Fold this protein.
Amino acid sequence: MRSTQRLASAFAAIALTGAGLVLTTGSAHATMATCSQSHLPLPDAACQPGAYNPDVTQSTINSTICVPGWTKTVRPPVSYTTPLKIKQIGEYGYTDTNTADYEEDHLVPLELGGAPKDPKNLWPEPRYGDQPAASKDSVENKLKTAVCNGTVNLDDARSAIATDWTTALAKVGIG
């Protein structure tokens, strides 16, 4: 009898999940996807268009982003990003809800003066697929180097990565 109850509970959980509901502590909560996965590996621009840190401008880069270790001073703690990641995984309607499978990534990276805590600049970027989260890191580093050595203007780098990180290097002429 007990295995029949477990089997029935498992089927109910599967049915609720398929219907866009999550079973938690005996109650179902709707998890309506409001952001589209169709843009992957990019975020849905309607949900995460990117946002800038107002303290970082072309005239302040030598005292902000170009200082080694500066991003550590503005990076939000996981106590902030993990709950946001969980919320946004639901907003994207990802069937895989394991938070370890996503990087709560800054669309405009901190290395280019992206807004540290603005949800419009943070999104759950998958760590799997053709262009996983780690693929974006090298683009961020190359853009920061180009900005700090003066070959690319900060606003151009920010705009390029916010529009499409996969083509950002070519867009600013360093890819």
